[in-house]
Design brief:
Blueprint: H1 2-18, H2 27-44, H3 50-70, H4 83-87, H5 93-121, H6 128-157, H7 162-183, H8 187-191, H9 204-209, H10 218-237, H11 252-256, H12 258-267, H13 274-283, H14 288-307, H15 314-324, H16 331-336, H17 348-351, H18 357-387, H19 390-415, H20 431-434, H21 436-456, H22 460-475
Helix pairs in contact: 1-5, 2-3, 2-5, 3-5, 3-6, 3-7, 5-6, 6-10, 7-14, 13-18, 14-18, 15-21, 18-19, 19-21, 19-22
Length: about 500
């Protein structure tokens, strides 16, 4: 039995992750987690006693691991597409399941080590060797609990409420980003915690941080071991859900944007671009790989507007202006995933059509601008009105939208390396690796333009004039610079 399980594990890891067409072990995410954990734990080690430090350190792999399981590692929580073929071999179901669990734990543990190792190495000197080892093994148990919890969530939602998974992914993404930025300012309060109370008790890291015997939190230790038992039960018995079905592109937002779609098709989208525009308008919201990567990004500026910038002061107005221009900063990450699809084999329908790649790219840009960016800037305008006033929103939001449209056109060929909806997400690489320089450049440009617009744009009339100019420029065909995006 052990030999068959070992063969299955080797086959899955070699074929899916290390083979000729495999994605490779997630080395880059491990290094990213190592860097993030090293910076955060280095800041916290001199401020936190052992138990609060362990709680803080375990929160890092918990949050980053959840993002990975919602993203690139999500297929590990679903049924194997080759399950029927493998099931025809002389194997027992328990062997197949154990092999999948081992692969899941191996990859998730490998990822978690990236955050746990610097946390253990940088622990306060008062923790000793036992405390440092306690961070490692309790962190590994927490990774198993994370996998079990998300597996149970997938089972409950994949057929009935898939939109809840996207919403949860967005919440986790925004919560991680905002939480770490805001939480660093509360380290002195965390240092006073000896036994969690209130909302802190609901944090899984508080349960697992209490597992080492020296933690001094017996109730939390009971919760922690209960979570370990529940995790083992779920991993042993819960079924792996099937891959998600094709998403519906219809929603309340889709209904509200119907007039915008028809108006754009008449006066803004050229006839040769209309096929691509209409297709991408319907198809992009139905692609899970695109949605799970794009929608969390769209929520980031909204979260910062809600939590941070306030137009009551001059300095707050400046921060609010910069927040309105932030969508341009992560535009490369959004553009990188335009080719992402779960059905790349269907691309032949477009590749054999009499469609110029330049027209396809132009139609895709306009669909992305109206389907995703326009609702985002409407939401930013509403929040800016609440945080400052209507005049401030009308003065800056059109300028920010115009800038993002122009930057999208200029950056398209640099970041959309392949035709839209043509490539599995696992083959697209990482925007943080491929376009780090581009993102830094856009961050500097957008901040400078935000400050310039805040100081120089006198009112709504010039702002809307600039927006109309950007729309007109996007309407024009630029044959010289719009080249095909990758091989067809």
């Amino acid at each position: 039995m052990r030999g068959r399980i070992a063969a299955l594990v080797r086959a899955q890891i070699s074929g899916e992750w290390l083979g000729e067409r495999g994605r490779g072990l997630p080395v880059a995410p491990v290094l990213l987690q190592f860097s993030i954990s090293a910076v955060l734990c280095g800041l916290a080690r001199d401020l936190l006693p052992p138990y609060p430090y362990t709680l803080f350190a375990l929160a890092i792999p918990l949050c980053l691991g959840a993002l990975a399981l919602f993203g690139d590692l999500a297929p590990l929580l679903r049924s194997d597409p080759a399950a029927e073929w493998i099931g025809a071999q002389p194997l027992r179901p328990i062997e197949l399941r154990l092999a999948r669990i081992i692969v899941l734990m191996f990859l998730l543990g490998f990822l978690a080590l990236g955050a746990l190792l610097p946390a253990a190495l940088l622990a306060p000197t008062s923790m000793g060797l036992g405390g440092r080892l306690g961070i490692l093994w309790s962190g590994m148990l927490q990774s198993a609990g994370l996998a079990a919890g998300l597996l149970a969530l997938e089972v409950l939602c994949v057929r009935r409420a898939e939109g809840l998974l996207t919403l949860l992914h967005t919440g986790v993404f925004v919560g991680v980003l905002v939480g770490f930025l805001v939480g660093l300012g509360h380290l002195p309060e965390l240092a006073q915690v000896t036994r969690p109370s209130g909302l802190l008790r609901a944090l899984p890291s508080a349960w697992y941080a209490a597992l080492p015997p020296a933690s001094g939190a017996p109730l939390m230790r009971l919760w922690g071991w209960s979570a370990v038992a529940a995790s083992l039960f779920i991993l042993a018995l819960a079924p792996f859900p099937p891959p998600p079905r094709v998403r519906r592109s219809g929603s309340a937002l889709t209904f509200l944007l119907v007039p915008v779609r028809h108006l754009a098709a008449r006066i803004w989208v050229r006839r040769s671009e209309r096929a691509s525009f209409e297709f991408l308008w319907d198809a992009l919201p139905a692609e899970r790989d695109f949605v799970t990567r794009a929608y969390p990004l769209l929520a980031v500026p909204l979260a910062f507007l809600l939590l941070g910038a306030d137009g009551a002061t001059r300095e707050g107005e400046g921060l609010l202006a910069i927040a309105l221009f932030t969508p341009a900063i992560y535009l490369p990450v959004l553009l990188l995933h335009v080719p992402a699809t779960q059905t790349p084999a269907a691309r032949w329908l477009l590749d054999t059509a009499p469609l110029d790649p330049r027209d396809e790219a132009a139609g895709a840009r306009k669909a992305l601008a109206l389907r995703l960016l326009l609702p985002l800037f409407i939401g930013l305008g509403a929040l800016a009105t609440v945080r400052a006033d209507l005049a401030f929103a009308l003065r800056l939001v059109p300028v920010a939208f115009a800038l993002t449209l122009l930057l999208q056109r200029l950056a398209w060929n640099a970041f959309v390396s392949r035709p839209p909806l043509s490539t599995p997400a696992s083959e697209l690489g990482s925007a943080w690796d491929d376009s780090g320089g581009g993102m830094l450049t856009l961050a500097v440009i957008s901040c400078l333009l935000a400050i310039a617009a805040w100081r120089l744009v006198p009112g709504p009339a010039p702002a809307f004039a600039l927006l109309v100019t950007a729309l007109f420029l996007e309407r024009l065909p630029v044959r010289g610079s719009d080249r095909p995006s990758g091989p067809r």
